[in-house]
Amino acid sequence: MKEEGNVMVIAQRMIPGASPSPSLTPHSTATQPPLPTPSPYSFSVASTRLRSRPSIYAYDLALRSLALLFSFISALSLAVPSPTRTKQGTISKFYDNSQLTYCFTVSILVFIYSAFQLFKRVCDIAYRGVLISDMTSDYLSFILDQLTGYLLVSSSSVTIPVIQQMDSQTPLWKAAILAVCMSFTAFMVLAVSALLSGYKLCKRIIW
After folding, report:
1. Would you give per-residue pLDDT tens digits along the chain (207 residues)?
2. What are residue 160's DSSP bridge partners?
3. Rounded CA gap, 149 and 163, in Å?
4. Pairing of strands 84-85, 2-4
5. CB 194 within 8 A of CB 146
6. Contacts with 91 (C-beta within 8 Å, 6 or more apart), sequence order
């Protein structure tokens, strides 16, 4: 620092390679790192999780709906027709014959079971594990699907001889034919449901 007249001059020594102080460079702007851009994959995580599982649940839901529909048609077809005269000359409805009553009862049981399974699947999609735990549900579904399938096959097999003894021009004969067809179709649907339940059970146990 040297004094010339009444003016004081301050000499600042510049160090080579050093950047000037921010206070000495008022026009310099501080560079900030750019904000991270959210990846589009982060928004699709929830949707991917919801889409990875529902393929099985959607198939199961569709199968339960079909079993509910076919069992309902089978039971309704036996309940609607008017009394019918058989070849032996007796007037009867379905409840006058034990085989037809058995077929009607099985159809009602399968209808109730399918309605419960359908309600359970809807609750599983909306609120997971509200009614029954997943493992218990898989065990019960695997066992009860086979049981209801056996009941449908047995009811159809005992109804066929009764159909052969009835007059083919009566409404009850046509209703019995429809009931057997719908029972067998419901059996095929429940067989696929049993395979799907077994797959989910094996997947749960092994993995």
Report:
1. 444 444 444 444 444 554 444 444 444 444 555 555 544 433 333 333 334 445 777 888 899 999 999 999 999 988 886 555 555 555 467 777 888 899 999 999 999 999 999 988 887 777 765 667 777 878 888 899 999 999 999 999 999 988 888 877 778 888 889 999 999 999 999 999 989 888 888 887 876
2. none
3. 21
4. unpaired
5. yes
6. 83, 84, 85
Handedness of CA 202, 121, 149, 98 (dihedral sign): positive
Q: What angle do CA 137, 194, 127 make, to 5 degrees?
A: 30
Residue with tokens 């994959």: 41
Contact 138, 57 (CB under 8 A): no
**Do the beta carbons of residue 179 and residue 159 sit within 8 Å?**
yes
Question: What single letter denotes the amino acid at residue 53?
Answer: R
φ, ψ of residue 51 in degrees (nearest 5): -90, -20
Is the pTM of the predicted complex or chain greater than 0.85? no
- Each residue of 38-70: b (16+ CB within 10 Å) or e? eeeeeeeeeeeeeeeeeeeeeebbebbbbbbbb
Q: What is the dihedral of CA 197, 199, 205, 207, to 10 degrees?
A: -140
